[in-house]
Design a protein that fits this description.
There is one protein chain. The protein is α+β, with helices and mostly antiparallel strands. The protein contains 13 helices and 23 strands. Strands 3, 7, 8, 9, 10, 11, 12, 13 and 16 form a nine-stranded mixed sheet that branches. The protein has a five-stranded mixed sheet with strand order 20-19-21-22-23, with helices on both faces. Helix 1 packs across helix 9 (318-328), helix 2 (44-63) packs across helix 5 (167-187) and helix 2 packs across helix 9 (318-328).
């Protein structure tokens, strides 16, 4: 993409309403623009990151055996009355009426909707297990939306739902998602720690939050340092027994402030106690028959008995992850994108557009980087070099390839690693080979 054709409305000044790093940098880097309180337009740079994250989440859900569908954003109120949650959910639910005065709502979550879909089609143990998911915009009318997309009212979420014949089978589905989440966050360049969590308005008696550590995190967390050092499960057999993987992770102390047990934490050796700030990026629940029983989502067992299906739900904040990654990966100059989610792979900087020596080299590199799948953003604008460098640092692309007349006199270009700040001079061919090799 040529920057002269792109839409990248960067800001030189930090907007006064931005309270945290990710909100400041997303506004300054031209990733989002506020429409109303807690609701944002995703501009091209932000949208590109959002789609990268969404695709990684989708691939890991598919790998775990989940099946994608898409449910509506607007739901009928009667489904929520069946489950008993319509009046209990609170003012975060946006309640509306259509032109025929039917009561509707903008879905904050989809337990009721997926249960209705399941009960209409699945009636036997032979139809189980089922693990269904979608990636969809949701709305919760936060009383005080703040921190940009970290606590907005409209957000993109991956939510999955499992249906099983009994608790033992439901735990196997829970374990699938537990392991899938560890791999998902690892692919996003994050270290996410599973922590026993409160079930909140979703309900049930088993729940884990997935927390990434960041100095600017929203909550205090406490954990065994060994939990931070554990590698992701990687390529596992999702049809096999995943309980040992889950047991290994959950045996180590890890708790949010609200679930913290000071006595258990103090029992750890001092050098293994770790207290830090954290950001929730995923949450999984097993809640048994909380929804299936009142909504009569029953299946027949091999013995002919009719039982309510055991359910779980599993959420990943896709849009929230954009902010969380920035909170965990930035410096004083701007964002530092992990390579899997970067909106562009390399920023190609032409220091003197219009120069007879520089332009042909940049055009050649741009064409070859594009052909190699490196997704270059070519800064072909007439701006001064200082402004170009500042903008590239702000938007956080992993690599900057800088081409100017002085270097070309010696037959070299400059390659900068955004994360480390390291620079090296290479021939254009060597730089291209380095970037093309990944």
């Amino acid at each position: 993409m040529r920057l002269s054709r792109y839409f990248l409305p960067v800001l030189k000044e930090t907007p006064s309403e931005a309270e945290i790093v990710s909100h400041r940098l997303m506004l300054r880097a031209g990733m989002i623009r506020q429409s109303s309180a807690g609701i944002y337009s995703w501009l091209p740079l932000g949208h590109a990151v959002l789609k990268k994250i969404e695709q990684i989440v989708r691939e890991e859900q598919d790998r775990a055996g989940a099946v994608e569908l898409l449910m509506p954003t607007i739901q009928p109120a009667e489904l929520w009355r069946e489950s008993g949650r319509y009046d209990d959910y609170g003012k975060e639910m946006l309640r509306i009426q259509d032109r025929k005065e039917r009561e509707m709502l903008y879905g904050p979550t989809n337990e009721e909707m997926i249960t209705e879909i399941f009960r209409a089609s699945c009636r036997s143990y032979k139809d189980l297990p089922k693990l269904l998911y979608h990636i969809q915009w949701k709305f919760r009318d936060e009383v005080r939306p703040r921190f940009g997309i970290m606590r907005g009212r409209e957000f993109l979420m991956k939510d999955a739902y499992s249906f099983d014949i009994d608790e033992a089978a439901a735990r196997r589905s829970y374990n699938r998602m537990f392991v899938a989440y560890l791999n998902t966050f690892s692919r996003l360049g994050l270290k996410a720690l599973p922590m026993r969590a409160d079930t909140g308005p979703i309900g049930g008696d088993l729940s884990h939050e997935f927390i990434i550590l960041a100095e600017t995190g929203e909550s205090q967390v406490f954990c065994d340092r060994a939990a931070v050092e554990m590698a992701p499960p990687g390529d596992v057999d999702f049809e096999g027994d995943l309980e040992p993987i889950v047991a290994e992770r959950t045996a180590l102390y890890a708790a949010t402030d609200e679930m913290h047990d000071p006595a258990a934490f103090e029992a750890l050796p001092e050098d293994r106690r770790m207290s830090a700030r954290g950001i929730e990026v995923g949450h999984i629940f097993y809640f048994g028959t909380k929804y299936s029983a009142p909504m009569k989502a029953t299946v027949q067992t091999p013995d002919g008995e009719s039982v309510a299906a055991h359910m779980g739900s599993y959420g990943v904040g896709v849009s929230r992850l954009v902010g969380a990654i920035i909170e965990a990966s930035h410096d004083e100059s701007g964002i530092i994108w992990p390579e899997p989610v970067t909106p562009f792979g390399v920023g190609l900087v032409n220091l003197k557009p219009g120069d007879a020596e520089v332009d042909p080299v940049c055009e050649d590199l741009y064409a070859k980087l594009t052909a190699a799948g490196c997704e270059p953003l070519y800064d072909d604008t007439d701006e001064r070099p200082g402004g170009k460098f500042a903008r590239m640092d702000l938007i956080g692309l992993p690599w900057q390839l800088i081409v100017g007349p002085r270097g070309l006199k010696d037959g070299v270009v400059e390659l900068k690693n955004r994360a480390t700040g390291e620079r090296e001079t290479l021939s254009p061919e060597s730089a291209l080979a380095r970037l093309s090799a990944g």
